[in-house]
Amino acid sequence: SSSSSSSSSSSSSSSSSSGGGGGGGDGSCSSNSSSSSSGTIEYYSAAHNELPFLDVPLRHLFQCLEIKNVVLLFTAVLLEQRILLVSSHYAILTIVAEAIRALCYPFLWPYIYVPLLPRLKLDILDFFQPFLLGIHTSALSHAAELADCVVVDLDNNSVSFPQPFLALPPPIFARLHSQLRALLYPDLVSLDLLVPSARPAPQSPDPGLGNFPVSAVRAAFLEVFTSLLRTFRHSVVPLKKHSREPLVMFRKDVFLQSNPPMYSA
């Protein structure tokens, strides 16, 4: 299953805005301005063929987590898990939470979303519905039972699932991992092709990550959805063809048979 693409509200409520965000980012854009008594306010909109703007640095997500763990966190969001981000750096919690939501475009996270949860509100962890929360490491010892949470330790590059879960289909997972590796470590990929045993693959991202390819990374994650949902229309069966409000039924069995099977990890 994947996150709902319904409308959203504020970040501290049970729904959230679209994965892109407004202001700042990459790609071409159009600019507009309006005057007020206090000066000029400029705002930008992405071109029609561009992804929505992302106003947080995507590179920090890959500095905290290696590629495999980023994909695992992405999968946890798609599976609508109860996700807890943990870090000793307050700023990184919001940056990573916004970044992973952006990678889920065009879908939205419609559940509880609090990137920086105050210690006095830790009782939210007792809720049974999905959530995406961030807490400081010092508050972890005060948290309630975490047995049903996906705990993402951003300081130690780890993602812990409470039980076996359905991961992305192997072909899609392998292609996404390969694309991200080629984008983030192009020199290393070239070395592997020329001298396979020249050096081992890194266990964690390069702290610098050079000139981060924001658009290409976001496009790689978007391709996951196009791969998973390419047969969606063939799985929708009309029940009332000629009514003013057509009634359709989604055939889950047809959809699953037309896609690579997911596997338990």
Give your account of this protein's structure.
Helix content is 29%, strand content 19%. With 265 residues, the protein is an alpha/beta fold. The strands form 4 sheets. It has a 5-stranded mixed beta sheet, covered by helices on one side. It is globular, with a radius of gyration of 20 Å. The N terminus is likely disordered.
In a nutshell, what does this entry contain?
By secondary structure, this protein is an alpha/beta fold. 29% of the residues lie in helices and 19% in strands.
Overall strand count:
11
Number of helices: 7
What structural category characterises the helix and strand content? alpha/beta
Helix fraction, binned, reads 25-40%
Classify the beta-strand content into a percent band.
Answer: 15-25%
The description of the largest β-sheet is: 5 strands, mixed
Mean pLDDT: 77
Order of strands, widest sheet: 4-5-3-6-7
Instruction: Note poorly predicted spans.
Output: 1-28
Shape: globular
Cα(first) to Cα(last) distance is 16 Å
Q: Radius of gyration over alpha carbons?
A: 20 Å
- The ordered string of helix (H) and strand (E) elements is EEHHEHEEEEEHHHEEHE
